[in-house]
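Form 7-S
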Amino acid sequence: MNINLHFNPNSFSKLFKSIPKIQSKMKVLLLAAGYSTRLYPLTKNFPKPLLEIANKPVITYIIEKLEGLKEIKEIYVVTNNKFYQHFLDWKFNLNTKLKIEVLNDGTLSEDDKLGANGDINFVINKKNIREPLLILGGDNLFDFNLNEMVDYFKNKGENVVSLAEEKNLELLKQLNSITLDENNKITFLVEKPEKPSSTLYVNCIYIYTKETVQLYKTYLDQKNNPDQPGHFLQWLYPQKDVYGFLNKGNIIDIGTHETLEKARREFISSSSA
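Output:
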C-alpha cells in the first residue's frame, strides 16, 4: 500500500505572523477514571495512571510536562470512586506548584462507568468550565513538551489535536486515520480504519475552545458514544474547524501489558543513553 504523509509545517510560521493571540488561559483535564481491565491483575485494585515507570507514576510525568505551561489556570484529575483515595494520596505526596483538584465521578466498576466523554462532560458541568480545555489521557507517556502545541492553539484560535506518526499499518488499524488539508485542518477522520489514509493518527491530547467545550452535552444528549474521546472528535470535525499539530517525539498509550513493558524498556533506554 502506498501512503502519502500530508502535513504542512510551513502553515505554522505564516499563522504565527498573521493572527493575534487569543484564549491564552486554559484549564486542564486528565482522564483517569477507567478500570483498565486489559491490565489485570495489575490494575484490579490499583489505577493504571499510577503504575510506575522508572520509579515514578505515569501521571506524574504528565504533570511535569504541564509545569512548563504558563497558560494553565487549574488541573482537574477525574477518577472513579474505587480509586479516588489512591489519587488523593498521590496528590498529597506530589511536589508541584500547580493547582490540582481530584474529582470523583462516583462510579464503582466497568459496568457503571461514565466513559471518557461522559467523564469530560461530568467535569465541565461540575466545575462550570467556560475556558479552553486541554484534555490528556492519564495513561499516556510522552517525551515532547506541549508549548508549541499550546502556542499554535493560541494563535489559531481554533480546536487543535495532537498528531503522531505510525508507520506500522497493522498498528494504525487499531488507532485512527486522518486526512489534512494544506492548512492542517482535519478533513477526514475514521476510528480503527481498515485502510489507513495516511501514517498520521490522533492521540489523546486535545485542546478545545471554550465554545467547543460546551458541545459535550449536545454530543451525549444525541446518544453518541460516551467512551473513547476520538468519537467526540469524529462527531466534531464536520461542524467545527479542528487542526492537527504534529508533536515531534514519542508517545505510548499504556493500555496493555505489552505497551507497559515497552514504555518501561524505552524509558530506561532513553534515560541511560
